[in-house]
Design brief:
The protein is of the alpha/beta class. Helix content is 46%, strand content 15%. It has ten helices and eight strands. The protein has an eight-stranded parallel sheet with strand order 3-2-1-8-7-6-5-4. The longest helix has 17 residues.
Length: 217
Amino acid sequence: MIAYASRTGTKRNLDALRAAGWRLLVSARGVLRNEGFGYALDNGAWTAFQRDEPFDVAAFEKALKQLGAGADWIVLPDIVMGGLPSLELSLSWLRRVRRRKALREATFLIAVQNGMEDPKVMRRIARWLGPKCGVFVGGDTDWKLATMPIWARLAHSRGAICHVGRVNTARRIRICEAAGVDSFDGTSASRFAITLRPLELARQQIDLEGYLARKAA
């Protein structure tokens, strides 16, 4: 799995992340620098949610302009734990950004949330998925842990990637591996370099049970 850490400006932590082969997740609401790393671009909705603020369209547009073309992938605007209204928002943005010349080769992720596991909703999401449009598993913690295998299977059935947000423990990394997701992100290794070692050990551990289950599926 590919690991992303939230962008940090702390040299010690950056050096440790670089040595471990991690990449950065740059938020539209943060400092728009990738610090020389490979990176993905978050839309800033989580920061707005935490601060009880509306989604910052101007910040997202600025981030798209500065960093969108070079990002591994870009999370489409969403509403944290917003269900169907979140999906409608994401799809409306997907239609818009796909027409932009500078983002023609970009990969976008639809953030899935609590309430989107309904089969009819999943079939609708599946129609948009492909090599240039994947899944970002958001939602609350219990929902995320319970549904990530479903989202990984759906994404892979369409040739898309599946990423899981807010993964900050070795246990959750192992759950991601068992579910077959492609990548995850977290803030722990960005804030505290000492936590990187157990997280990296968990990432490198081969989950034979999960691997065999996926091969048999």
